Amino acid sequence: MKIESPRFGTLVVEPSRIIEFPRGLVGLEDCKRFTLFHPEGDNPSYFILQSLDDAELAFHIADPAQFGFAHEITLSDEEAADLQLTDSDRDIANPVAHLVVVVMLSKDGPNQPVRANLNAPLIINLDTRRGLQHVFARLDYKVAPV
């Protein structure tokens, strides 16, 4: 599949590189198919999540640990089904290695700092290539001194 991204040019996406978000993203429920890529160079600090349904839609995403943050997320049965998790995947004693949690990044202007949306992380099952956006009704966190 080819997509003409206004920001990144022509992208060739193999079917095995497509990630499906069955419910889309908040406010973008019609965009369900995405692919991930990263900028050139070793050890990128962020990735690009490019929509395959709307070529103009792409997000910078990163591991929340880069911002000193770790999510503890309890998935609902519906979310587990969306990610195609098995019962053994949901065993809290055995964290699921093929699930990744990332946050979307934004910047209000060229001289503004990068912000991470910690309240609505993305969860991606790398085995099934399925993802979802988990929106917290309330985010409880503690800030520890560095």
TrEMBL record:
SUPFAM superfamilies: BH3618-like. Keywords: Bacterial flagellum biogenesis, Cell projection, Chaperone, Cilium, Cytoplasm, Flagellum, Translation regulation. InterPro entries: Flagellar_assembly_factor_FliW, Flagellar_assmbl_FliW_dom_sf. GO terms for biological process: bacterial-type flagellum assembly; regulation of translation. It is found in: Cytoplasm. Interacts with translational regulator CsrA and flagellin(s). This is Flagellar assembly factor FliW. It comes from Sulfuritalea hydrogenivorans sk43H. The gene is fliW.
